Here is the input.
Amino acid sequence: MQFSTSTKAILAVLAAQTALASPTSPEMSLNPRGPYCWTAGAVNGQCGQVWDFENCSGKNLQQIAPDCKQTCRKAPAGAKSIMAWGDGTYGTTCYMYEDENCTQEIRRTSNTIESSCATPVGQTIRSYKCLAKC
Here is the structure.
């Protein structure tokens, strides 16, 4: 069975659209996760996210683009855990503190390119900072 040139073109367009719609295609996996965060491993995709439940679940309360400035951020009310990920080349580490000035560390994530979650069980996160490319 032979197809005409126009039929081949239509089939090629349909195949391309199907590939783009596939959840496992690279184009789809690079969708943003918010105003600052991209998929772990994407260029400049480093991220720090604050969650309202243990083990980085529940509602995402805040997210930042980590850098090397050591910026101390006040944690939103109800913060229970923090997730960090790097950009494919550099890892990210987020530090959690029990005070509002980032002086009394209570927990930190692993320095990771992939995602890492940390929960300071029984303690309140009042401030945090996330570092990447340092």
